[in-house]
Amino acid sequence: MEYFDTHAHLDDAQLSGQLDAILTRAREACVAGIVTVGTTADTSATCVELARRYVGVWAAVGIQPNHGRDATPGDWDRVVACARDARVRAIGETGLDAYWDHTPWELQQRLFADHIQLAQATGLPLIIHMRDCGQAVVDMLAGGQPGGALRGVMHSFTGTAAIACECLALGLHISFSGIVTFKKSTALREVARLVPDDRLLIETDAPYLSPHPHRSQRPNEPALLPHTAQCLADLRGVPLARLAEQTTANARRLFGIPGGGC
Ligand SMILES: [Zn+2]
After folding, report:
1. What are 106-124's pLDDT values in tens digits?
2. 182 Cα–ligand 1 center, Å
3. How far apart are CA 232 and CA 252, in angstroms?
4. What is the C-alpha separation between 38 and 63, in angstroms, rounded?
5. pLDDT in tens, 223-233
6. Strands (E), the chain
């Protein structure tokens, strides 16, 4: 049995100093693959380095919407250059965020459009962040890909069933983080029950969002991913092994990463 963590920030200062131990614990927990996700030009470059250095780690490159305000045109060029590396398997994290107002909305939209275009040019899937703006994200994705199926994942999904359905109709995968295990996430668990088997993904978003019953553990790390898998298996009424196998196969297919063993 093996798991695939589709979203972690291994470059984060809370994790980077102890990566050898963290990746050993991940392997012991049968987490066989991890996508480490950049949020700026600098962290994107670091994620590429980490993916080159560590077996089982792949990179995503992009400028997260909340970091858009501080990005220079040169930063975007660096992301585009990084995207050519063979260890890069996705474009992101990108998307829109209406919760924090760090980056003006028009700039967020322009950056998101650039990421959608880069994903199309490279053939890589998108890793999409959305906070309090599901419809705006869906509208931009639908506009950016007239007629064709989109490849990508809605990361740490917290939207409604209606938004999930629109994302699925666009061809996207839906990924759940530790948030789905939280006591108050009853509505989100209902959404997680609806996602078809072949579109379901799991992630830690480490160092953030430690799953229940380790919610107080800081930082979160990939080795805690099985708790989120167990929650999803329980609510979907399938054995944990099947949930792990299905979500890992989905991740490998989406990111073009061949199978291994644990
Ligand atoms: Zn993230």
Report:
1. 999 999 999 999 999 999 9
2. 18
3. 19
4. 7
5. 999 999 999 99
6. 3-8, 31-37, 57-61, 88-97, 126-131, 152-154, 173-176, 200-202
C-alpha 11 to ligand 1 mean position (Å)? 11
Residue 227 contacts by C-beta under 8 Å, 6 or more apart in sequence? 178, 181, 211, 212, 213, 214
* Global confidence as pTM: 0.96
Please, where are the H alpha helices in 54-185?
Answer: 73-82, 105-122, 134-144, 161-169
- The two beta strands, 173-176 and 152-154, are parallel
- Architecture of domain 3-255 in this structure: Alpha-Beta Barrel (3.20)
In angstroms, rounded to a whole number, what is the distance separating the alpha carbons of residues 215 and 228? 11
| 41, 61, 123, 214 from 75: Cα distances, Å | 5, 11, 21, 36
Query: What is the C-alpha separation between 261 and 247, in angstroms, rounded?
Result: 15
Lowest-confidence pick of 83-87, 194-198, 257-261 = 257-261
SS3 63: coil
How far apart are the CA of 36 and the centre of ligand 1, in A? 9
Cα 163 to ligand 1 centre (Å): 20
Which pLDDT band holds residue 245 (cuts at 50, 70, 90)? very high
Other Cβ atoms closer than 10 A to 226: 20
What's the CA-to-centroid distance between 50 and ligand 1, angstroms?
A: 16
Is there a contact between 66 and 102 (Cβ–Cβ < 8 Å)?
A: yes
What's the length of the chain?
A: 262
pLDDT at 204 over 70: yes
- Identify the bridge partners of residue 130 per DSSP, sorted by sequence position: 96
